[in-house]
Here is the input.
Amino acid sequence: MTLNSIGLDTKKTKDLADELNQLLANFQLYYQNLRGIHWNIKGRMFFDLHEKFEELYTDANLKVDEIAERILTLGATPLHTFEDYTKAARVPVGKNISKDEKAVELIVNSLSELLKIERSILEASDEANDEGTNSMMSDFITQQEKTVWMMKAWLGETV
Here is the structure.
């Protein structure tokens, strides 16, 4: 086993970086979805949702940066083109969504996909003894589970 300068197995960190790049691509699409619904939302819930969507896309933008920096910390290169993002993304694309329920459903569906990827990374980072990635995934998961719960509550649904 070969260790890198931060004490992690180089093979395992390469695999983690690949998974983090997949997460990065999906987060970028999620971010763009949030920008779109922020811009296009209409109706009686406009003011509340416009503000909430801005809060969410600001948070997503910060997470994109954290993910990219973690990929660099692991010695890899973050994806950085829309072509790469669309090839790797599993998050649904939300185009021209202006209705409140459709926008919130898009967020729930997107976060559900992100959570699947994050849980996979969490498991792999645990096996690689990579506490940095593990901690980041744990924090993301905790925050996003709460957002899913809140969005589902807004929809009148349970988790």
Notes: Residues 104 and 154 are 8 Å apart (CA to CA). The mean pLDDT is 97.
